[in-house]
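The instructor's notes for this session suggest beginning with a concrete chain rather than abstract definitions. Hand out the sequence below and ask the class to guess, before any prediction is shown, which regions might be ordered.
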Amino acid sequence: MATAQLTVVGSGGERRWSRAQLAFLSDGNSVPVSRLLDDVGPATHASFETASTDYRASIPIDVVVADGVIVHGDEDGPLDVSRGGPFRLLVPDGKTLCWNVKHVARIRLTVGSEPDSVPANPPH
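After discussion, reveal the predicted structure:
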């Protein structure tokens, strides 16, 4: 079975993170999104994309940096797929629950927002 990876892509390049690397960066079972965005270039938004579906949420970078965390585990170990794993974005008090993205595989940093995969979401 392949090791799950979270990919962060921006104008400055690409970085891949394994669960073990994320665990090293964190004091528990989640890591602030801000810890993952070094050296990937300037951006106004971050698009969180899933591995198994075409789901995407484009979120203003200032919100994600201030409040967003990537959950990679729970009290039982690695975050199970049934709970949104292997990586799940949580944005406490976000404008919409659609910002709490399950099964995150890729974070793409963009200048300008992108369309969300859920058309009913208001632009942000």
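Then share the key points. Residues 19-25 form the longest helix (7 residues). Residues 5-110 form a domain with the Sulfite Oxidase; Chain A, domain 2 fold (CATH 3.90.420.10).
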